[in-house]
């Protein structure tokens, strides 16, 4: 055969999967034209009743995309024989799963098997940002949902007391410049809350007045939500820069940003013009929302965001690691429950199940080990311990 023809065939073979692998603004134009609007309307509807949903969705996209790409892997509920990202320490207090499930259910009624959960997460976060006064940015669609969700992938998400140089490294690894990292943190932490179990008052210098407030708000209340931006907790704005420099932020990482020799000068410049970061934030969010997406024929379109379409098949290739947990307890861990096992978990059975799973999960390194009758099932004594464990993670 003509060498050029061979080349052409090889070339086309190499290129065609890429062509179908594109995300597009009008990806669902034919298959589900109202998809984006349905997501937007649902987020807006919830926001009216519960403005906190905006922050929940923003954090959700960060945790989905930073752990193995924007593929909805963060939504998978753990099963008795199958770990998932949801169980990782940094993900313990994630919220918004119930709204994602609601949106998915509506979309399934209108256009079954078409719109991915990963697209709902990405578009939902953008809507949350807009509703709190943040910038608009394009979220092209066509993401596919993952066939895996490993706890290990999320264990390395940045923890609340991550050192600044390490944070800079982690963001650089995902393709973000220093300014983009700062913009993301500033925007992200200008709305929403952190729970007291993530707060370490003495881990970095802190304003004495702010410390007094924080100490009394958190006294004996590990699950208490503390606003990240104490001035305008529900508004997307540039308060972050001044608050961090003044050491008036509850999370260690945010106070450290105001001290590190690489970040401090940038925070200072931005605190003089606290809207200047907004275009950078928008650009960085657009970038975050397409990190390592699955497209084309990869992955699947989940029918229900909390589980793989074929959990049986998926579990064969996943970490099998629970031998001692009552399956009835596990049944409570649906994605519309309050946090599985977070310190605020309402159902004691669920909390207990999660504690057991946490203990087992922590005992298993590396993945793909089958600890049948594993003797090292640790139980945590109280919610407080969960907090300490999170902070003690690989930061
Ligand atoms: C070094 C990087 C980061 C660290 C260590 C970090 C850590 C945290 C922690 C510990 C919380 C409290 C969670 C809770 O108690 O529920 C939190 C909240 C939050 N983070 Fe970050 N974060 C980082 C970057 C980001 C980025 C890049 C975004 C988004 C662009 C973001 C958005 C949020 C939002 C919106 C909340 C509030 C969530 C809510 O109210 O439910 N964070 N972050
Ligand atoms: C501490 O709380 C008081 C009362 O809510 C408030 O007026 C003050 O601004 C707070 N101080 C700081 C540093 O946040
Ligand atoms: C997974 O394992 C189950 C039984 O344990 C089996 O019936 C099923 O065919 C397996 N799936 C795959 C994809 O291997």
TrEMBL record:
Q: Where is the active site?
A: 63 (proton acceptor)
PROSITE patterns, sorted: PEROXIDASE_2 (PS00436), PEROXIDASE_4 (PS50873)
Its recorded name reads Peroxidase
Reaction equations catalysed: 2 a phenolic donor + H2O2 = 2 a phenolic radical donor + 2 H2O
* Cofactor binding annotation: Binds 1 heme b (iron(II)-protoporphyrin IX) group per subunit.
Q: State one molecular function term (GO).
A: heme binding
Annotated residues for binding of Ca(2+) 2:
229, 232, 237
Cystine links in this protein are 32-111, 65-70, 117-305, 196-218
Q: Where is the site Transition state stabilizer?
A: 59
What the entry lists under Gene3D superfamilies is as follows: 1.10.520.10, Peroxidase, domain 2
Where does it mainly reside? secreted
